[in-house]
Write a structure and sequence with these properties.
Layout lengths: L5 E5 L13 H15 L3 E5 L9 E3 L14 H14 L6 E4 L2 H5 L9 E5 L8 H6 L4 E4 L11 E4 L18 E5 L8 H11 L3 E4 L5 H8 L7 E5 L3 H10 E6 L9 H8 L4 E4 L4 H4 L6 E4 L2 H9 L6 H11 L2 H21 L3 H9 L4
Parallel strand pairs: 1-2, 1-4, 2-3, 4-5, 5-6, 6-7, 8-9, 8-11, 9-10, 11-12, 12-13
Length: about 350
Amino acid sequence: MQPGRRVAILSPVAWRTPPRHYGAWETVASNITEGLVARGWDVTLFATGDSVTRARLHSVVDKGYEENPAIDPKVAEYLHISEAFEHAAEFDLIHSHYDFMALSYTRCVKTPVLTTIHGFSSPKIMPVYEKYRDGYFVSISNSDRAPGLNYLATVYNGIDLSLYPFQESGGDHLIFLGRIHPDKGVHLAIQVACLSGLPLLIAGIIQDERYFREQVEPLLSRTIRYIGPVDVPGKNELFARARALLHLNTIPERFGLVLAEANAAGVPVIAMDLGSCREVIEDGQTGFLVNNVHEAVKAVRRISEIDRSACRQRVQQCFSIETMVQAYEQVYWTIFELKCGARTRACRVETCLDARL
């Protein structure tokens, strides 16, 4: 148990926490929240009003702005963020999953703020990180770090393995799961499927309409199908039919939750060797890392070499909720000890160390 330790988790409000379909940041915020509650922490989740949690839920936005077009995104975001910081004195720590926007509030409160950086969306946001570079930061992969920031750790995202039952044998389909966007390489997945002579199922939200209309939709056929966004049961239906997951990202991956989800179900992953893919996928053991379409086609032919149970075991070891939450606990205690160190040694011993018992 963690007596007296009150933590606020600041989740985004684009989608519900956890999301119904897409929403990686909300997924991670949810998994951390539920994991902390299970380990005895006093947690308040700042999220949309329709969020589902065992923690105390605090909301000022009823639904995610991506799910309700009547909501102005900026209005929702700043009402939400300011609400959390106006209650900062009630907590020992605020754990923010709100990118650069929440950083601008951190010097207005005495409560320490930890920011998990889920990725740098644009160089244009970097001046905010540079201004608040001395805050507390966690990266989600070693590859996705910016120089000069005060990183306390890299903590890999964790998934709820109970949601993704192990599939002892797969099907004959290649699958793509993710945003329909050039960054995610849907067009490359289609090329690989065509050259391999295998059917491809494509699932995910269309984030770039023009890209879908010009580079994806014209190539759809009886064997290359787009089925739209899917929820967790929908993902498991795809995993049951999958020979492999294709993740041919065209820019460095920040983490890639779907890689861990697929491996949890026993599905090998063929991923472009960019960014965090090398950290999530063990080349030759849980999938293959490739550099182009030609290499991906060769990897498809080698899928039978992958032990599906090894895929599941690696996720259990490295990317479970339990592993993630334990790592964040260590970060939290580091922050508490740093905070106490600014006071007296008695505070550090009595408050920080004894509270672990």
